[in-house]
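**User:** Once you have settled down, spend some time on the protein underneath, comparing sequence with structure tokens, and judge whether sequence predicts the tokens.
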Amino acid sequence: MVEDIRALAAANPVVIIDGRSGAGKTTLARMLVERWPIVGRVQLVALDSIYPGWDGLQSGVEHALNGILRPHGRGYLGEWRRWDWERDAEAESHAVDPALGVLIEGSGILTPATAAIADVRVWLESAEPGRKARALNRDGETYRPHWDRWAAQEKAHIARDDPRALATRVVEIP
């Protein structure tokens, strides 16, 4: 994927990474940030910081589209608000500089609307047993009671948006 980014010859590319919970999106995003092939830093945005609670997959994606991706694509400063999971409320705002590249990772981010803006679109595919084990190992027992309702939102996204078909790169994770 580093080659995909380098081949763009753009100073401020947009990369999005989608996949179901536990597929490895955050790990891949961090690896790309470490190996970012363009001079200057990349701005990493994790949708886990934006989703407004356990029923907020679609709302989080819309926030990223309208607050980050569309402004960035037009050369304007973008903004997103962090979701405070403990307070169950919005928290501080974060700016996104249009002069720099941006990498957004999170379930649901690859839609027809975001695909039209993103330069590199990654879909991570992984079977449920491995994903669930990784997610519960990562987030502990706080995630277990929410797994099914979050998975239902992911399933609806896949049926509606077909993110795999929109991807420029599909990565299979065991």
